[in-house]
Design goal:
With about 400 residues, the chain is α/β, with parallel strands linked by helices. Helix content is about 40%, strand content about 20%. The strands form 4 sheets. The chain has a 7-stranded mixed β-sheet, sandwiched between helices. The two termini are about 35 Å apart.
């Protein structure tokens, strides 16, 4: 099919829920993608932080294809050795005690919300169910995770939204304290607000939140959907802050390209969710777990994490040399670029035309390249971006 045929069919048969760039990707290897016409693109997006090992990594392909030829799916009514291996590895890497495997970040966040409310109900009874999130946060697109999202632009059309959420200003501990009342059971935050514009929280704010939660028996829950799987130079971003939350959620890079999510909790919460209180048909699917097992074996070593940090610093330094760059922020290989001309969307479109896939968030450019990207691929991508930025 030609690109125009693909585009026309998309317009005719698919709901128009995405603003797409003019590229139809059909194959890829490493950090290089190819479209239907054979044009190559350096990929600084990794499928919005999903393809952490790049396109069609040999080890990942072998793990997934071998599992697909063994058993592709079983019900969660039976034991699965791959599920237990992945869960054990996650617990060993993080110090958490229990894992619920699901299919996406939104699902993992739904599980975290249910854990918080059930823990509080079991211990304190009804009336202590509110969860405080942050202004400018993003937690998913289900009706409940949209309600948890602290952006007014998402609180429209789909009424009634799930009740029980309140929003405090990021990095403003006084404002957070003003929202901590007797009906609050949890504080749920992103340490770097990804969709909100790659906005890191300060260590002082995070430390203060952790102390308040500990003092009042309020759960500290961290959405690591985008910041997890070594994206920030630690297996999970909270490890960069030196804290230990009660719950974290994970997805995106965990499966390296297949849908898988996880909700991890500590010992205090280990028995909150009992049989029948939560579940999923596809969560912990053998193929997804085979992919996650391969990812976890690769991206969590000290050597790999050091490389992520080094590549991230290299990219930042190269970006700071460019014209039209006002600010570069982020952590590891999660990077945001504020442009002087406030023209990120226009730049992203021109980058695609010139062979570079790049993201936007709010009014800035966002980079989430494969963690395995080579320095040669980084330089190729930076060269294209520089050309577009200076045009």
């Amino acid at each position: 099919m030609t690109f125009e045929e693909i585009k026309n069919d998309e317009q005719e048969y698919m709901m128009h829920t995405y603003g797409r760039f003019d590229a139809a990707i059909v194959s890829g290897k490493g950090a290089v993608a190819k479209d239907v016409n054979g044009k190559e693109y350096i990929d600084f997006t990794s499928g919005i932080g999903v393809n952490c090992l790049g396109y069609c990594d040999d080890g990942w392909v072998k793990a997934v294809s071998t599992q697909a030829a063994t058993v592709q799916h079983i019900s969660n009514l039976y034991y699965s050795p791959l599920q237990t291996e992945v869960s054990k590895k996650l617990c060993e890497l993080t110090g958490f005690d229990k894992v619920f495997l699901c299919n996406s970040g939104a699902e993992a966040n739904e599980c975290a919300i249910k854990i918080a409310r059930k823990y509080s109900f079991d211990k304190y009874g009804n009336g202590r169910q509110k969860i405080v999130t942050l202004v400018n946060s993003f937690h998913g697109r289900t009706v409940t995770t949209l309600a948890a999202t602290g952006q007014d632009v998402f609180h429209n059309y789909f009424f009634p939204f799930t009740e029980g959420f309140d929003y405090a200003e990021a990095n403003n501990i006084d404002d957070l304290k003003a929202h901590i009342k007797d009906d609050v059971c949890a504080v749920f935050i992103e340490l770097i607000q990804g969709e909100g514009g790659v906005m890191p929280l300060t260590k002082e704010f995070v430390d203060a939140v952790a102390e308040i939660c500990k003092e009042k028996d309020i759960l500290l829950m961290i959405d690591e959907v985008q910041t997890g799987m070594s994206r920030t130079g630690a297996v999970y971003c909270y490890q960069n802050y030196g804290i230990q939350p009660d719950v974290i959620t994970s997805a995106k890079g965990l499966g390296g390209g297949v849908p898988v999510g996880a909700c991890l909790c500590n010992k205090k919460l280990a028995d909150v969710m009992s049989a029948g209180s939560h579940g999923t048909t596809f969560g912990g699917n053998p193929i997804a777990c085979a992919a996650a097992k391969e990812v976890l074996s690769r991206v969590t070593t000290p050597e790999f994490l050091a490389e992520v940090r080094e590549k991230g610093e290299y990219i930042k330094k190269e970006l700071e040399k460019m014209d039209n760059v006002k600010e570069v922020r982020g952590m590891g290989m999660m990077i945001g670029i504020v442009t002087e001309k406030d023209n990120a969307k226009e730049i992203a479109k021109k980058c695609v035309e010139n062979g570079l896939l790049i993201l936007t968030a709010k009014n800035l450019l966002r980079l989430l390249p494969p963690l395995t990207i080579t320095y040669e691929e980084i330089d190729r991508g930076i060269s294209i971006l520089k050309k577009v930025m200076e045009a």
